[in-house]
Amino acid sequence: MSSINRILLFTVFCLVVSHELQVCIAIPAQFLGGQTDCKQKCSERCMLKIFFRRCFRQCSTCCQRCSCVPPGTSGNIQACPCWATSTTGGRNKCP
């Protein structure tokens, strides 16, 4: 009976470990600090700005730090929490 309990316990352990691995693999790279195509995403974010170069430079810095860029040309900062919390002098640092 003891060997059956060990086999059952080992099987349950293997199932739990395999489930955890699947969950970890399914997490998007942006939440793990993975690479984001900052150049393309910042070009899209800043394309309507009058000062494109300034916006692009700030966006690139924030993208490298946060590993994400909010969708759209402005706003939507809730999609990237790091973006929303980056401030300088009480104002948003990221465009």
UniProtKB/TrEMBL annotation:
Keywords: Signal. The keyword Signal applies. Pfam families: GASA (PF02704). The keyword Signal applies. It comes from the Eukaryota. Residues 1-26 form the signal peptide. Belongs to the GASA family. This is Uncharacterized protein. It comes from Saponaria officinalis (Common soapwort).
